[in-house]
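> @MW can you paste both from yesterday?
MW: sure, first one:
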Amino acid sequence: MSKKRVLFKFTLLAILGALGVVLMSYIQFPYPFAPFLIIEISDFVIILTFLLFGLKEAVIVTLVKTLGDLMFRGPVGPYGVGQITAFIASMTYCLGMWAVSKLVRKEKLGFKILGYTSIVIIVTTVMTIANYFVLTPIFLGQFSFLDMTNDSLAQMTGINSYLLSIIALYVPFNLMKGTMVVAVAATAGMAILKIYQKKLGDNHEHKEFKEPTEGTDL
């Protein structure tokens, strides 16, 4: 790789990391049905990084985004559970993109939709499980889901069951947030990829959801 390509790559990675920090720290709004849940779309930066460069770079941007938010806002929630949650979600996007890239190698629209839908489902599943066992207990001041009682979330959900409350809170929340994230990545990503390839004079053909060497086309 030429010095020009290396410099441009690291410059773009720095921009993506900074964008992730800004979106995560300052561009957010509460989920209408549970105001303590925050909707922000910084994870679309993780998807773009994966599509441009690959898994390793997406993990690096995940670390930059999470640590940058921790530096600017300080720990969110007990033990920084807000940043822990964001890190788990971003890593799930990284690994979800990598896994789907191994299975979905077609560039037809139907396969693209299948790939992105699979990623949203993966993230929703992982985050719901993580909230059940670890994240929500920490947020509510407990150290284990075994310490949670049936009425721990009843005042928030009106459901007198910890398991059902978790499902009712996090499944629709993560489905909606995940759909927003992949929608922004799929639309904005096309323009960014075109600019990147034009800047580097990259004439290679890349396929979406195929593990990239120097980027993956949307």
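MW: second:
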Amino acid sequence: MITASQCLKRYGNPEKLENQLKNLIVWEVPLEIQTAFSHVRFTAVGTIGFPKKIYINKEFLPVLDKALRTLIKRNLQSEMKTWDGCFMIRKKVSNGSLSLHSWAIAIDVNAQENGYKKKPKLSSKFVECFKLAGCEWGGDWAVKDGMHFQLAAFPK
């Protein structure tokens, strides 16, 4: 599991603009992904439709892209009901260290159905798409966080 300490070493302080500019990019989500997930509620703005742009860590982008395309290929995109974010500088509820969202190497989906410390409701087939792409799932943790997917390991 990647820790906040490891992220600080690799990416620097996420609150510093120079570190954001070095590590994060604005991903213009391909139209085929937007279309496949057009039913998704974008909770940050309260609209229906997958985000057109996502502020994301350059190292996490290929992982997320692969996970979303695998969901489409396996016809599982309907299981995603809400997009609940990627980049957000904040502390973890569990221990007060910075969340991996602070470096934009984590996402949340279907947050309302998969609340922190609640039994996750995502299907194993859905979760597998993210794991195969290179994510770790919060639903596998002792304290469940079923909405949460994060980069499983730093690329070499």
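> thanks! Residues 60 and 105 are 5 Å apart (CA to CA).
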